[in-house]
Specification:
Length: 302
Protein backbone atom coordinates (compact mmCIF):
# COMPACT_ATOMS: atom_id res chain seq x y z
CA UNK A 1 0.00 0.00 0.00
CA UNK A 2 1.33 3.43 -0.96
CA UNK A 3 2.38 5.61 1.98
CA UNK A 4 0.29 8.54 0.68
CA UNK A 5 -2.88 6.56 1.34
CA UNK A 6 -2.04 6.49 5.06
CA UNK A 7 -1.41 10.22 5.41
CA UNK A 8 -3.75 11.79 7.93
CA UNK A 9 -5.14 8.46 9.08
CA UNK A 10 -5.13 7.10 12.62
CA UNK A 11 -3.20 3.83 12.73
CA UNK A 12 -4.93 1.06 14.72
CA UNK A 13 -2.98 -2.16 15.35
CA UNK A 14 -4.92 -5.44 15.47
CA UNK A 15 -3.51 -8.94 16.20
CA UNK A 16 -3.15 -10.61 12.80
CA UNK A 17 -3.83 -14.12 14.13
CA UNK A 18 -4.04 -16.14 17.34
CA UNK A 19 -6.43 -16.21 20.27
CA UNK A 20 -7.40 -12.51 20.06
CA UNK A 21 -7.88 -12.05 16.31
CA UNK A 22 -11.49 -13.15 15.76
CA UNK A 23 -12.77 -11.36 18.87
CA UNK A 24 -11.07 -8.17 17.70
CA UNK A 25 -12.90 -8.37 14.37
CA UNK A 26 -16.20 -8.73 16.23
CA UNK A 27 -15.32 -5.71 18.37
CA UNK A 28 -14.52 -3.60 15.29
CA UNK A 29 -17.83 -4.59 13.72
CA UNK A 30 -19.73 -3.65 16.87
CA UNK A 31 -18.00 -0.25 16.89
CA UNK A 32 -19.04 0.27 13.22
CA UNK A 33 -15.47 0.33 11.93
CA UNK A 34 -16.05 -0.80 8.35
CA UNK A 35 -13.24 -2.21 6.25
CA UNK A 36 -12.31 -4.79 3.65
CA UNK A 37 -9.11 -6.79 3.88
CA UNK A 38 -8.38 -8.09 0.37
CA UNK A 39 -5.91 -10.99 0.14
CA UNK A 40 -5.38 -10.74 3.91
CA UNK A 41 -3.19 -7.65 3.51
CA UNK A 42 -1.50 -6.43 6.69
CA UNK A 43 -2.71 -2.84 6.16
CA UNK A 44 -6.21 -1.86 5.09
CA UNK A 45 -8.22 1.34 5.06
CA UNK A 46 -11.39 1.90 7.07
CA UNK A 47 -14.19 3.09 4.80
CA UNK A 48 -16.19 5.26 7.20
CA UNK A 49 -13.43 6.86 9.31
CA UNK A 50 -9.93 8.24 8.64
CA UNK A 51 -8.36 5.09 10.10
CA UNK A 52 -5.99 2.46 8.76
CA UNK A 53 -5.93 -0.97 10.40
CA UNK A 54 -2.49 -2.53 10.76
CA UNK A 55 -2.46 -6.28 11.34
CA UNK A 56 0.58 -7.23 13.43
CA UNK A 57 1.72 -10.08 15.69
CA UNK A 58 0.22 -9.41 19.13
CA UNK A 59 3.71 -9.48 20.65
CA UNK A 60 4.83 -6.55 18.46
CA UNK A 61 1.86 -4.27 19.13
CA UNK A 62 3.02 -2.84 22.51
CA UNK A 63 6.30 -1.66 20.97
CA UNK A 64 4.65 -0.08 17.92
CA UNK A 65 2.11 1.73 20.10
CA UNK A 66 4.58 2.59 22.86
CA UNK A 67 6.98 4.25 20.42
CA UNK A 68 4.14 6.24 18.87
CA UNK A 69 4.44 4.61 15.44
CA UNK A 70 0.84 3.36 15.83
CA UNK A 71 -1.87 5.36 17.62
CA UNK A 72 -4.09 2.59 19.04
CA UNK A 73 -3.75 -1.14 19.50
CA UNK A 74 -5.31 -4.26 20.94
CA UNK A 75 -3.10 -6.86 22.59
CA UNK A 76 -2.83 -8.90 25.78
CA UNK A 77 -2.06 -7.31 29.15
CA UNK A 78 0.61 -10.01 29.58
CA UNK A 79 2.20 -9.09 26.25
CA UNK A 80 2.65 -5.47 27.38
CA UNK A 81 4.41 -6.58 30.56
CA UNK A 82 6.57 -9.11 28.72
CA UNK A 83 7.62 -6.40 26.25
CA UNK A 84 8.34 -4.09 29.24
CA UNK A 85 6.23 -1.35 27.63
CA UNK A 86 3.87 -0.68 30.53
CA UNK A 87 5.36 2.80 31.06
CA UNK A 88 5.07 3.70 27.36
CA UNK A 89 1.40 2.81 26.85
CA UNK A 90 -1.91 3.50 28.58
CA UNK A 91 -4.48 0.74 28.93
CA UNK A 92 -7.72 2.49 27.96
CA UNK A 93 -10.08 -0.45 28.41
CA UNK A 94 -9.92 -4.06 29.48
CA UNK A 95 -11.94 -5.79 26.79
CA UNK A 96 -13.33 -8.84 28.60
CA UNK A 97 -12.05 -11.48 26.16
CA UNK A 98 -8.84 -13.45 25.81
CA UNK A 99 -8.91 -14.08 29.56
CA UNK A 100 -6.34 -16.56 30.84
CA UNK A 101 -3.75 -17.07 33.54
CA UNK A 102 0.03 -17.13 33.36
CA UNK A 103 0.78 -20.08 35.60
CA UNK A 104 3.68 -22.07 36.96
CA UNK A 105 3.04 -25.72 36.09
CA UNK A 106 4.86 -28.88 37.16
CA UNK A 107 4.35 -32.64 36.56
CA UNK A 108 1.35 -33.75 38.59
CA UNK A 109 3.14 -36.86 39.85
CA UNK A 110 6.42 -35.02 40.51
CA UNK A 111 7.97 -33.80 43.74
CA UNK A 112 7.55 -30.06 43.13
CA UNK A 113 4.37 -28.97 44.91
CA UNK A 114 5.14 -25.25 45.43
CA UNK A 115 7.20 -22.54 43.78
CA UNK A 116 9.60 -22.74 46.71
CA UNK A 117 10.21 -26.40 45.82
CA UNK A 118 10.86 -25.36 42.23
CA UNK A 119 13.20 -22.47 43.03
CA UNK A 120 16.73 -23.12 41.80
CA UNK A 121 15.55 -25.64 39.19
CA UNK A 122 15.03 -25.41 35.41
CA UNK A 123 12.07 -23.41 34.03
CA UNK A 124 11.07 -23.35 30.37
CA UNK A 125 8.79 -20.55 29.13
CA UNK A 126 7.86 -18.19 26.31
CA UNK A 127 7.57 -15.43 28.94
CA UNK A 128 11.20 -14.94 29.83
CA UNK A 129 10.78 -11.47 31.37
CA UNK A 130 7.72 -12.24 33.51
CA UNK A 131 8.99 -15.66 34.60
CA UNK A 132 12.42 -14.20 35.36
CA UNK A 133 10.99 -11.40 37.50
CA UNK A 134 8.69 -13.81 39.34
CA UNK A 135 11.41 -16.30 40.21
CA UNK A 136 13.92 -13.55 41.04
CA UNK A 137 11.63 -12.64 43.96
CA UNK A 138 11.38 -16.27 45.03
CA UNK A 139 15.17 -16.67 44.79
CA UNK A 140 15.70 -13.56 46.90
CA UNK A 141 13.30 -14.83 49.56
CA UNK A 142 15.22 -18.12 49.71
CA UNK A 143 18.66 -16.46 49.47
CA UNK A 144 19.51 -18.28 46.24
CA UNK A 145 22.40 -16.65 44.37
CA UNK A 146 24.79 -17.43 41.55
CA UNK A 147 24.55 -20.98 40.20
CA UNK A 148 21.85 -21.87 42.74
CA UNK A 149 19.35 -19.40 41.24
CA UNK A 150 16.42 -20.58 39.13
CA UNK A 151 17.38 -21.16 35.48
CA UNK A 152 14.95 -19.62 32.97
CA UNK A 153 15.13 -20.96 29.40
CA UNK A 154 13.17 -19.45 26.50
CA UNK A 155 11.30 -21.52 23.92
CA UNK A 156 8.95 -20.13 21.29
CA UNK A 157 6.22 -22.77 21.47
CA UNK A 158 5.10 -26.21 22.72
CA UNK A 159 6.18 -25.18 26.21
CA UNK A 160 3.96 -27.87 27.76
CA UNK A 161 6.17 -30.62 26.27
CA UNK A 162 9.35 -29.44 28.03
CA UNK A 163 8.92 -31.44 31.23
CA UNK A 164 8.09 -34.69 29.43
CA UNK A 165 11.16 -34.24 27.23
CA UNK A 166 13.39 -33.76 30.25
CA UNK A 167 14.20 -30.16 29.34
CA UNK A 168 12.60 -28.60 32.41
CA UNK A 169 11.47 -29.24 35.96
CA UNK A 170 8.58 -26.80 35.51
CA UNK A 171 7.13 -24.37 33.01
CA UNK A 172 5.50 -20.93 32.97
CA UNK A 173 2.80 -20.61 30.32
CA UNK A 174 -0.63 -19.16 29.56
CA UNK A 175 -3.54 -21.36 30.60
CA UNK A 176 -7.16 -20.82 29.56
CA UNK A 177 -9.11 -23.95 30.49
CA UNK A 178 -6.18 -26.09 31.68
CA UNK A 179 -7.20 -29.03 29.46
CA UNK A 180 -3.94 -29.05 27.49
CA UNK A 181 -1.85 -29.03 30.64
CA UNK A 182 -3.85 -31.83 32.24
CA UNK A 183 -3.55 -33.88 29.05
CA UNK A 184 0.25 -33.87 29.36
CA UNK A 185 0.23 -34.53 33.11
CA UNK A 186 0.88 -31.00 34.39
CA UNK A 187 -0.88 -29.03 37.12
CA UNK A 188 -0.68 -25.46 38.38
CA UNK A 189 1.25 -24.66 41.56
CA UNK A 190 1.09 -20.85 41.28
CA UNK A 191 -0.39 -18.04 39.18
CA UNK A 192 1.97 -15.31 38.04
CA UNK A 193 -0.80 -13.02 36.73
CA UNK A 194 -4.30 -12.86 35.27
CA UNK A 195 -4.53 -11.38 31.80
CA UNK A 196 -6.99 -10.41 29.07
CA UNK A 197 -7.14 -8.31 25.91
CA UNK A 198 -6.73 -4.56 26.36
CA UNK A 199 -7.11 -1.46 24.21
CA UNK A 200 -3.98 0.69 24.44
CA UNK A 201 -2.74 4.07 23.26
CA UNK A 202 0.72 5.62 23.22
CA UNK A 203 2.00 7.85 26.00
CA UNK A 204 4.13 9.64 23.38
CA UNK A 205 1.74 10.10 20.43
CA UNK A 206 3.29 11.38 17.22
CA UNK A 207 -0.05 12.54 15.83
CA UNK A 208 -1.72 14.57 18.58
CA UNK A 209 -4.49 15.75 16.20
CA UNK A 210 -5.94 12.22 16.36
CA UNK A 211 -6.90 12.63 20.05
CA UNK A 212 -10.63 13.32 19.32
CA UNK A 213 -10.83 10.27 17.05
CA UNK A 214 -9.09 8.12 19.67
CA UNK A 215 -11.69 9.28 22.21
CA UNK A 216 -14.52 8.48 19.78
CA UNK A 217 -13.26 4.97 19.01
CA UNK A 218 -12.58 4.33 22.72
CA UNK A 219 -16.13 5.39 23.57
CA UNK A 220 -17.60 3.13 20.90
CA UNK A 221 -15.55 0.18 22.07
CA UNK A 222 -16.60 0.84 25.67
CA UNK A 223 -20.21 0.73 24.46
CA UNK A 224 -19.69 -2.62 22.74
CA UNK A 225 -18.07 -4.03 25.87
CA UNK A 226 -20.93 -2.82 28.08
CA UNK A 227 -23.52 -4.19 25.63
CA UNK A 228 -21.91 -7.60 25.91
CA UNK A 229 -21.82 -7.39 29.69
CA UNK A 230 -25.37 -6.18 30.41
CA UNK A 231 -28.99 -6.96 29.51
CA UNK A 232 -32.09 -4.84 30.05
CA UNK A 233 -34.60 -6.34 32.45
CA UNK A 234 -38.18 -5.02 32.41
CA UNK A 235 -41.02 -6.11 34.70
CA UNK A 236 -44.15 -5.00 36.52
CA UNK A 237 -44.40 -4.96 40.31
CA UNK A 238 -46.65 -3.61 43.06
CA UNK A 239 -45.50 -0.21 44.28
CA UNK A 240 -45.39 -1.57 47.84
CA UNK A 241 -42.60 -3.96 46.77
CA UNK A 242 -40.56 -1.22 45.08
CA UNK A 243 -37.78 -1.05 47.72
CA UNK A 244 -37.15 -4.81 47.41
CA UNK A 245 -37.31 -4.67 43.62
CA UNK A 246 -34.81 -1.82 43.27
CA UNK A 247 -32.45 -3.62 45.65
CA UNK A 248 -32.48 -6.62 43.29
CA UNK A 249 -32.17 -4.54 40.08
CA UNK A 250 -30.51 -1.24 41.08
CA UNK A 251 -29.28 -0.55 37.52
CA UNK A 252 -26.00 1.16 36.69
CA UNK A 253 -27.16 4.53 38.06
CA UNK A 254 -30.79 3.91 38.99
CA UNK A 255 -33.71 1.95 37.54
CA UNK A 256 -36.35 3.62 35.37
CA UNK A 257 -39.73 3.49 37.16
CA UNK A 258 -43.01 4.28 35.39
CA UNK A 259 -46.56 4.15 36.80
CA UNK A 260 -49.02 1.70 35.23
CA UNK A 261 -52.68 2.41 34.52
CA UNK A 262 -53.57 -0.12 37.21
CA UNK A 263 -53.52 1.52 40.62
CA UNK A 264 -50.63 0.50 42.87
CA UNK A 265 -48.46 -0.99 40.11
CA UNK A 266 -45.28 0.28 38.40
CA UNK A 267 -43.10 -0.86 35.50
CA UNK A 268 -39.35 -1.06 36.08
CA UNK A 269 -36.56 -1.10 33.48
CA UNK A 270 -33.01 -1.71 34.63
CA UNK A 271 -29.62 -2.79 33.29
CA UNK A 272 -28.42 -6.03 34.89
CA UNK A 273 -25.16 -7.88 34.40
CA UNK A 274 -25.71 -10.95 32.23
CA UNK A 275 -23.98 -13.20 34.73
CA UNK A 276 -26.51 -12.18 37.41
CA UNK A 277 -29.74 -12.08 35.40
CA UNK A 278 -31.00 -15.60 36.13
CA UNK A 279 -30.63 -15.10 39.88
CA UNK A 280 -32.21 -11.64 39.66
CA UNK A 281 -35.25 -13.06 37.84
CA UNK A 282 -35.66 -15.75 40.50
CA UNK A 283 -35.56 -13.12 43.24
CA UNK A 284 -38.06 -10.89 41.40
CA UNK A 285 -40.53 -13.76 41.10
CA UNK A 286 -40.28 -14.32 44.86
CA UNK A 287 -41.37 -10.74 45.60
CA UNK A 288 -44.29 -10.87 43.15
CA UNK A 289 -42.87 -9.35 39.96
CA UNK A 290 -44.83 -10.17 36.79
CA UNK A 291 -44.22 -10.01 33.03
CA UNK A 292 -40.45 -10.18 33.48
CA UNK A 293 -38.73 -9.60 30.13
CA UNK A 294 -35.01 -9.61 29.29
CA UNK A 295 -33.51 -7.90 26.22
CA UNK A 296 -30.01 -8.22 24.82
CA UNK A 297 -28.14 -5.06 23.83
CA UNK A 298 -26.50 -4.69 20.43
CA UNK A 299 -24.70 -1.55 21.51
CA UNK A 300 -24.93 1.24 24.08
CA UNK A 301 -23.20 4.23 25.60
CA UNK A 302 -22.82 4.16 29.36
Amino acid sequence: MHQDLLNGRLLFAIPKKGRLHEKCLELLSGADIQFRRPNRLDVCLVMNHPIALVFLPAADIPSFVGKGDVDLGITGHDVILEAEMQDQVTEIHRLGFGKCSLQVQTPENGSYKSVEDLAGKRIVTSFEVLAGAYFDKIDQQLNLTGDTKTKIQYVGGSVEAACALGLADGIVDLVESGDTMRAVGLHAIATVLQTEAVLIKSNVPHRAHHAPLIDLISSRIAGVIAAGKYVVCEYNIRRASLPQATAITPGRRAPTISPLEEEGWVAISSMVEKKNIATAMDELVKIGAEDILVFNLDNCRV
